[in-house]
């Protein structure tokens, strides 16, 4: 069968990147994603525990959205600088900024304060993460590039899972503030360790032609607007589900009869399932058909969410959530990896960063939509079943992936 190979070129300073340093760089980049996943889950786990401050967890929809707005702004405005000045400065700066801002969140006592700190934290993540994805593509062997990118970004569901699984113990030790202290200190440590390990300017990828001053604008021109439209739409639909579910699952499950601690642990377990699903999906992208892989993943998610609406809460829900919510996390791993097959190396950070920004349009809708459903007392079954619609639409959009893949193949043949 015909398979489109990614054309991300190897690092220019490849001889200076011995296998040990290359592996260490990928591991540290993966830990950045672990830190992000933990930090993203921290607010949704903390919200149900803030009632002593007079804060209703159902009021935190816009706080969750503020984080997404920040990620979008950082991804669109700051991340593309990685295509010009190198990945390392953006990654290290992002980690240090995340550390300071996440620790500052522990001082918040009102909704506006939580909103402000989450907005700024999101901007720091937006500057950092697209460059982590791009650098992992440059460091990875070509034949398993999507798999390596997905394994690195698997840190997100791993961090989400760790936050949920260990939340009861963390809160018991240090209260809700400890949920932010853990990722804050972790981010500070990463910022210190990353600089000497990651490749610097001399080891950046070979790019021909050189990245323009505003490479993100090329994504809206021919020929790249078609693949960008496809991947951005899929990212947006998936982000709607991802942030709807990750933001509200610890709040919705107790309304269905689960305890607060059990809800947190379930939120963690489904992320572990997402990690496994994401790895399988990425291997299939590398070894089989990217389009069929993504269509099948989104269709399976839609079926699971629809099934939740038809059965009573219980063990069956947990199994379906593992595939449904886990599938959303898996898609967030696989879609950036797919970008290595859709865009040339000079546009990779810009494509991932702008994709993150456009995806926020869907992500922005997730938390407020959940808050609106809770405000009118939508049953937990229907709350979770509503995620079937975005997943089903994404499966249909996936039919355009082969068309998007053909664009890069034509450009490479012409070159």
> Please, how many helices?
16
CATH architecture call: Up-down Bundle
Molecular shape: globular
Work out the helicity level: over 70%
Count of individual beta strands: 0
Integer-rounded radius of gyration: 20 Å
Summarize the structure.
Helices cover 75% and strands 0% of the residues.
Protein architecture, described:
By secondary structure, this protein is mostly helical. It has one domain (16-206, 213-414): MFS general substrate transporter like domains (Growth Hormone, Chain: A, Up-down Bundle), CATH 1.20.1250. It has helices at residues 19-46, 61-78, 82-85, 87-105, 111-139, 145-153, 155-174, 178-197, 225-255, 260-287, 290-308, 315-342, 348-375, 380-385, 388-397, 401-414. It is globular, with a radius of gyration of 20 Å.
Secondary structure elements and pairings:
Layout: H1 19-46, H2 61-78, H3 82-85, H4 87-105, H5 111-139, H6 145-153, H7 155-174, H8 178-197, H9 225-255, H10 260-287, H11 290-308, H12 315-342, H13 348-375, H14 380-385, H15 388-397, H16 401-414
Helix pairs in contact: 1-5, 1-7, 1-8, 1-9, 2-5, 2-13, 4-5, 4-8, 5-6, 5-13, 6-10, 6-12, 7-10, 9-10, 9-12, 9-13, 9-15, 9-16, 10-11, 10-12, 11-12, 11-15
Summary keywords:
single chain; mainly alpha; Growth Hormone, Chain: A
